[in-house]
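quick one before i forget lol
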Amino acid sequence: QVQLVESGGGLVQAGNSLRLSCVASGIIFSINDMGWYRRAPGKQRELVSTITSGGSTNYADSVKGRFTISRDNAKNTVHLQINSLKPEDAAVYYCNLRGRSWRGNFDVWGQGTLVTVSS
């Protein structure tokens, strides 16, 4: 069973930076896509950024130029560097990983980490 643990959320002043991390544990053969999503209060969950096994990245228009996704395959970890935080970035951030474990294909979500932005 693959499990994800997220960290790095917190209360940050607008304009500052934050780095989110998500670590996968379990008997993992490979991880294909890694991604970050977020859900703001009263809104639906939205895609923030994804990164493929080959390193190709994708970003929501609202975060381009401010957010950077990266992955460490040796540590089964994905990071999200958030710069120039805006009040509208406040949300619960979730990581999502898709890959293959000893039990077959998996598509798992983290428990979420809260990012609060003060103006």
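fyi The mean pLDDT is 96.
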